[in-house]
Design a protein that fits this description.
globular; six-stranded mixed β-sheet; D-Maltodextrin-Binding Protein, domain 2; Bact_solute-bd_prot1; Extracellular solute-binding protein
Length: 430
């Protein structure tokens, strides 16, 4: 092999020997720089979970990122779901922005429209082996504007009925999963068993999601029955809350609260997870709470209605905030977090948007707490379901809706008039 470290080589190659010391010094300096530890960089990552199992999983993904990015740490900051958008907005406006975070489906159009989140397309396209085509197009729809990707869904999670099997057994009732298997789990049967459960147990028959259906989870309470009856919230600038289908659905809920006494009423807490109600509606991430519940349980599809099966999907995505201190690094972490291997890890709590994971045993076997046959119901609901309503003016719509929906939850309320008031209040924002 020829040598290139002598003065003779400098002569034969036309290089000036007097430059040699400078060249060597530069090389030594470059090697020293490469071998020096990287400056510590902390990514601030907002989430709405404080669940130990979730955070352990997320920290594991952060640790695997640090293996290829030494010196980088990820600090997960929990903001409760009911306060998440408001407190996050305050952080961004107050000059204290996190680098990246979770984002609700209904808030995403607002943040994109306000320029509060960064485009992720280049980072995802350049990530080795990422395979963007593996994400289902419907699942990605909400997280794109034109052809630009602003968020990556990490959870495409349908709402399921959680039920306390012990309470069903005590009431002598077949559980929702059994009824669904025979095609008998519809809104009429849901109302019937909720009332029977309330009468047979020292508990309510049903509780809205996280007990917040009258407050921060209004849409989670209203949309399942509205869709089952064939109604809608809004579309093409038209309000659907006061249309006959939605009125029929909400009238049934109102009667279950105030006539049947089977749904936890405003001002009270049923708490399914501690045995205060026999059924609730939630996503599979909540299965992590069940080992401490102390009763036999299961999950089943939402009840069908006049419109047939109408699964409802809640999505959550990952975004990089525009004022991030480390935007490129944050985008790289999102690409790492949503590569196939890590999506398979997260699938135990968060149903994936990656088709290859959703269609594999990695998903149906992902959660040891939920039998594979019940996870197959989750897969079917993802395939057939539609995402909760979203809108660029969601904050204004929600704020306008809240007092009108509050007026609905009185025993003497006129349901049609209350829903007319909802539409009148939000029409200008649709």
């Amino acid at each position: 092999m020829p040598r290139h470290d002598t003065d003779d080589d400098c002569l034969t190659t036309g290089r000036d020997p007097v430059t040699r010391p400078t060249t060597i010094a530069s090389a030594v300096a470059a090697l020293a720089l490469l071998s020096a530890p990287l400056a510590a960089q902390e990514l601030r990552f907002t989430v709405w979970t404080g669940n130990d199992a979730h955070l352990e999983m997320l920290n594991g993904i952060a640790a695997s990122f640090a293996e290829k990015r030494p010196g980088v740490t990820v600090n997960y900051e929990t903001i409760p779901a009911g306060e998440y958008v408001q407190k996050l907005t305050f952080q961004l406006a107050g000059g204290n922005p996190p680098d990246l975070g979770w984002m609700f489906e209904d808030a995403m159009p607002t943040f994109v429209g306000a320029g509060a989140v960064r485009e992720l397309t280049p980072a995802l396209e350049s990530a080795e082996g990422y395979d963007l085509a593996d994400f289902s197009e419907p699942a990605m729809g909400l997280w794109k504007k034109d052809d630009a990707i602003y968020g990556v869904p990490f959870s495409t999670s349908p709402f399921m009925i959680y039920y306390n099997k012990d309470m069903f057994d005590a009431a002598g009732l077949e559980d929702p999963l059994t009824l669904a298997g025979r095609g008998e789990w519809d809104m009429d049967k849901f109302r019937e068993v909720a009332k029977a459960l309330s009468e047979a147990n020292d508990a309510y028959g049903f509780e809205f999601k996280d007990g917040q259906g009258y407050d921060t989870r209004i849409m989670h309470a209203l949309m399942p029955p509205i869709r089952a009856f064939g109604g809608f919230a809004w579309r093409d600038g038209e309000c659907g809350f006061n249309k006959p289908e939605a009125v029929a659905a909400i009238t049934m809920l109102h009667e279950m609260v105030f006539e049947d006494g089977s749904i936890v009423p405003p001002g009270e807490q049923g708490d399914y997870f501690s045995g205060g109600s026999a059924m609730t509606i939630n996503q599979i991430s909540r299965a992590s709470k069940m080992p401490e519940a102390g009763f036999n349980w299961g999950i089943a599809p939402l009840p069908t209605g006049p419109a047939g099966a109408s699964p409802i999907i809640g999505q959550a995505g990952l975004v990089v905030f525009s004022e991030s201190e480390y935007p490129e690094l944050a985008a790289e972490f999102i690409a790492h977090m949503t590569k196939k291997e890590n999506v398979a890890v997260m699938a135990q709590f968060f149903p994936p948007a990656r088709k290859s994971v959703l269609e594999s045993d990695a998903f149906t076997d992902a959660n040891a707490l939920i039998p594979a046959e019940q996870m197959q119901n989750v897969s079917a609901a993802i395939t057939e379901g539609t995402v909760l309503p979203s809108h660029e003016r969601s904050p204004q719509i929600n704020a306008a809706m809240k007092p009108r929906v509050d007026a609905l939850w009185r025993a003497e309320a006129d349901v049609q008039a209350s829903l007319d008031a909802v539409c009148e209040a939000i029409q200008g924002d649709l």
